[in-house]
Write a structure and sequence with these properties.
heterodimer; A: Immunoglobulin-like; 2 domains; five-stranded mixed sheet; 12 strands; B: mainly alpha; 1% strand
Chain lengths: 366, 636
């Protein structure tokens, strides 16, 4: 690892720098491929692997062309430099048709060779998976990802659980107000180790296939600029073994418990539904208690909040302290625009007593 | 002989017309393409300083993970304005500076076809830039990114009304210039200058101008719709009411991709002038160079959706635009090889101008290769909107366009000022520039592939130490570039004040602009030369002996500085006029009126501009009107 860190730091200062930079870059590309959970050079599933294999091949061609062209430039400038006192006028060559045809045809052939597998793979990547697959709907909001599992009627946010070794087809769109199509902006869902990115466009449904071959937590983030907190819109895919995934589904489809009367948690639940003149939590966040069908809220579904490791666009670890800080002043943990255009979470000016009760209640939602 | 722009006799002197070549009024009223070119140049430097400052703040913020030196609001304004500034207020007008100054000189004309329209273009550019920057003082600059994707950009929080109106103003400037340059090239070439004898710089001016002519109206439509969505609540891009965000993307990139070539072709023109001179050889494969440029321009209109490979488009357009994009590399490759073989067999003098041109070819090649990697659509999904793309287009626009333009500054500085730029400082500038450039943008290739998306106000720590290191290197690279830019500025000012006197032909040049006095007289040529060859000036200086070895022509090597030459030829020069300036000022109230939906301001702006047009139209000519021969005759 020390090699990798040192390589790009060495910057020679001569005209050969261009070439050396590239060699260093090529080396680093290879070495860097063994770290980072958001690393596009370290594919962990077939939908990331195939493009990776193709680009490595293209990159190889690019390196060869690079070395040839830069070598030619360096050789020419060195060989034909004017020596001191040499005032002779060189032959006034105007061109050479054979040469020119050569460097028109050869690049064209190389590019044709690249374009064939490229076009094939475009269709393979975008087609519906041949094997039986899981469908997850992804909705991009400012600034968090919502996931809905139509097969299980599960709503969750930020972290998407998937079974290992099973293709997953994402049906994606973007909106800010529940399922209404207005006020949404474009986002892009990107988990580099599992698949390339695909934009989520309001008014359109786009699709992305991904699959994880190993259990693990795969990081990603929104890749299309979506305004103020674009940088704070992360995504995670948690790949689980078949048994773990079943357990996860069972957990997520179990209604939230109602706390016993008179407890702090019960007081929290009460506040969740009614904050007097202030907007109630429940007006945006759903907690499904088994009464009636589930439905989407304006903000993340909190039925199983504490089954998730992170919150607030997956930029903060979900701990009781963080949650309390968040409720006290959400904007401090993540810039939002509730006051300007109603996007994000408002500051509800909660008292210490209210904060205690709400955090206690929310901690029961696991 | 009426050689100056002062009215001689006859016709009444119009009010406001500057009668001197000194003082501010003479610049405000100038219609001299050379002075307009100089104004473009200095304005570009100012905006370059602004755009550079913004990138400095960006690099400071990203130097370490999870930093918050500036807030997300400010950061988003910075990268938005950095992009807008560098594209629309630096690279494009930098090309215009060269076109303005050089085009008439290179084709043996006294000025452009429409001198007052030329002044109008400059003032529209200046006011457009001032208008955009005034947003900083009026509640914040646009923060919806330079591509301004709807529906985000139509949302008031993005402040993109300034973008929509400001770019529209700049578009008017570009369109007027394009029409001007096309007309000039088609109609005003010196006798004997056929198309295939034009310098490649003139070819590239022509291709670029046609690109502008066809591309700018497309973004004009997109901006018009965006402005109506943002200011007047129209629904062009709102899916809830039947609009479509994709419409904006198609329109924007149908302009935006030709725009890439609008920015790079002029620099290619510069390099095609510089390389032959310092290799002492003609350009290798002239015809291929001209047609490859035209081919790039043409194919450039058919590849726009490669900016949208991850958008809501299906596999068929992805495949089609992938293949089209790959093949645009073919004419680009032709150019690269032709430049290298221009040097092959030559006697290369490594002046600063030449170094920057060689640097252009080398750096641009890197940008071209990463461009081909983008065209591999399945992996484009990994590269798109990451720092890999940021690296790519900086290798094209910084390593390409800017290297080319700076080469041109060193090359033509003596033409403009009669003085040479300092070569020692120049070389210090080049090597630090090359180092700083690669240090800034080289590591971005890697940080992008390692998962860093662009346009994020913080560098997430979870990306890991390697990405952090690469970002730190990029930020250090900025420091080197900043120092290098100061060297360049110092060299510019120092050389202006006390640079070595260059003489008329310091580089042993080949083309027409060096065949006249340095700096050129207001009317460029005492006598319009008759052209008999490509590289006319070279052929006047050198002949071939029996063995086809070029030998200097002993006498008559003819820099056209003879005071008595041109005797008897009447020199008709455009009059100075302040009306383009006065007219253009009206765009400010009009622009603010459109941003704030204020009908009074809109009305005032329109009335002002119409009045300005009338002043422009009825302004009498100093030499009388060509349509009225009697008046014209009386004037002399």
């Amino acid at each position: 690892m020390t090699v990798r860190d040192a390589t790009p730091g060495r910057r020679p200062t001569t005209g050969r720098r261009a070439r050396r930079t590239a060699l260093a870059a090529a080396l680093a590309l290879v070495l860097a491929a063994c770290s980072g959970e958001q690393n596009a050079l370290d594919p962990a599933g077939p939908y990331a692997q195939a493009p990776h294999d193709l680009i490595i091949w293209v990159f190889g061609i690019a390196v060869v062309v690079f070395v040839l062209v830069q070598g030619l430039i360096l050789f020419t400038t060195w060989r034909f430099r004017r020596r001191e006192g040499d005032d002779a006028i060189p032959a006034q060559t105007h061109g050479n048709t054979k040469l020119e045809v050569l460097w028109t045809v050869i690049p064209a052939l190389i590019l044709a060779a690249i374009s064939v597998p490229t076009v094939q793979l475009i269709f393979e990547q975008m087609d519906e998976p041949e094997a039986e697959y899981l469908t997850v709907e992804v909705i991009g909001h400012r600034w968090w990802f919502e996931y809905y599992y139509p097969d299980y009627d599960i709503y969750t946010a930020n972290e998407m659980a998937i079974p290992v070794g099973v293709p997953v087809r994402l049906e994606m769109t973007a909106t800010d107000l529940a399922r209404a199509a207005d006020l949404g902006v474009i986002h892009s869902f990107w988990i580099p180790r599992l698949a390339g990115k695909q934009d989520l466009v309001p008014g359109h449904t786009t699709y992305l296939n991904l699959q994880a071959d190993e259990p693990g937590r795969y990081l990603g983030q929104c890749a299309e600029y979506c305004g103020l907190s674009h940088a704070n819109m992360r995504a995670r895919v948690v790949a689980l073994d078949a048994g773990d995934f079943e357990a996860w589904v069972a957990d997520q489809t179990t209604p939230a418990d109602v706390p016993a009367e008179g407890t702090l948690e019960a007081r929290g639940r009460e506040l969740f539904g009614d904050l007097g003149a202030r907007q109630a939590c429940a007006s945006c966040h759903a907690v499904w208690e088994g009464d009636g069908p589930r439905g989407p809220g304006q903000g993340p579904d909190l039925t199983n909040l504490f089954s998730r490791e992170e919150f607030a666009g997956a930029i903060h670890d979900l701990t009781p302290d963080m949650l309390r800080a968040w409720l006290a002043n959400p904007n401090e943990l993540k810039p939002m625009q509730y006051d300007v255009n109603g996007i994000g979470m408002p500051n509800l000016n909660l008292t210490d007593e209210e904060l205690d009760a709400l955090v206690a209640y929310l901690m029961t939602l696991d | 002989m009426a050689m100056t722009t002062t009215p001689t006799t006859g016709a009444p002197t119009p009010r406001f017309r500057p009668s001197s070549r000194e003082g501010i009024l003479s610049w405000i009223g100038t219609t001299d393409h050379k002075r307009i070119g100089i104004m473009y140049f200095w304005t570009v430097l100012v905006f370059f300083a602004f755009g550079g400052t913004q990138s400095g703040l960006i690099r400071a913020q990203l130097a370490q993970a999870e930093q918050s030196l500036i807030t997300a609001e400010i950061y988003n304004q910075m990268f938005t304005m950095h992009g807008i500034t560098m594209v629309f207020l630096v690279v494009m007008p930098f090309a215009a500076a060269f076109f303005n100054y050089l085009l008439p000189l290179m084709i043996g004309a006294r000025d452009v076809a429409f001198p007052r329209l030329n002044a109008f273009s400059y003032w529209f550019y200046l006011f457009g830039g001032v208008f955009l920057y005034s947003s900083f003082l009026l509640g914040g600059a646009p923060n919806g990114s330079w591509v301004g994707y709807a529906p985000l950009s139509a949302n008031a929080v993005s402040n993109m009304a300034f973008y929509a109106v400001g770019l529209q103003i700049l578009g008017v400037s570009s369109l007027a210039s394009a029409i001007n340059f096309i007309t000039t090239i088609l109609n005003m070439r010196a006798p004997g200058m056929t198309f295939m004898r034009m310098p490649i710089m003139v070819w590239m001016t022509l291709v670029t101008s046609f690109l502008l002519l066809f591309a700018v109206p497309i973004i004009a439509v997109a901006l018009f719709m965006l402005q109506f969505d943002a200011v007047f609540g129209a629904q062009f891009f709102q899916p809830a009411s039947g609009g479509d965000p994709l419409l904006y993307q198609h329109l924007f990139w149908l302009f935006g991709h030709p725009e890439v070539y609008i920015m790079i072709l002029p620099a290619m023109g510069v390099v095609s002038e510089v390389m032959p001179v310092f290799s002492r050889k003609p350009l290798f494969g002239y015809a291929a160079m001209a047609f490859a440029g035209a081919a790039i321009g043409f194919i450039g209109f058919g590849v726009w959706a490669h900016h949208m490979f991850t958008s809501a488009i299906g596999p068929v357009p992805r495949a089609a635009f992938s293949v089209a994009t790959m093949f645009i590399a073919v004419p680009t490759g032709i150019k690269i090889f032709n430049w290298v073989f221009t040097m092959w067999g030559g006697k290369i003098r490594f002046t600063t101008a030449m170094l920057f041109s060689v640097g252009f070819v080398s750096m641009f090649t890197i940008g071209g290769l990463s461009g081909v990697m983008h065209a591999v659509v399945p992996h484009n999904a990994q590269q798109h909107d990451t720092y890999f793309v940021v690296a790519h287009f900086h290798y094209v626009l910084f390593g390409g366009a800017l290297f080319g333009f700076i080469s041109g500054v060193y090359y033509w500085f003596p033409k403009v000022t009669g003085k040479l730029m300092d070569e020692k400082l120049g070389k210090l500038h080049f090597w630090t520039w090359l180092l700083g450039f690669n240090l800034t943008f080289g590591p971005m290739h890697l940080s992008g592939l390692l998962g860093q998306p662009r346009r994020t106000a913080v560098l997430p720590e979870e990306l890991g130490g390697t990405v952090e290191l690469y970002n730190l290197l990029s930020s250090l690279g900025f420091v080197v570039l900043f120092g290098s830019a100061l060297v360049f500025l110092y060299n510019l000012i120092r050389s202006l004040r006390r640079g070595e006197v260059s003489g008329d032909d310091p580089w042993d040049a080949r083309t027409l602009e060096w065949m006249t006095a340095t700096p050129p007289k207001p009317h460029n040529f005492d006598e319009i030369p008759t052209i008999t060859a490509r590289d006319e000036f070279w052929h006047r200086k050198y002949a071939e002996d029996e063995q086809h070895v070029p030998v200097p022509v002993p006498a008559g090597a003819s820099v056209d500085t003879d005071e008595h030459a041109g005797h008897g030829e009447h020199i008709h020069m455009p009059d100075a006029s302040v009306w383009p300036f006065i007219h253009t000022m009206g765009v400010l109230p009009l622009g603010y009126g459109l941003v704030y939906a204020n009908w009074w301001l809109i009305g005032a702006g329109v009335v002002w501009m119409v009045a300005g047009f009338f002043g422009w139209i009825i302004e009498p000519l100093a030499e009388g009107d060509d349509d009225e021969p009697a008046t014209a005759l009386a004037a002399h």
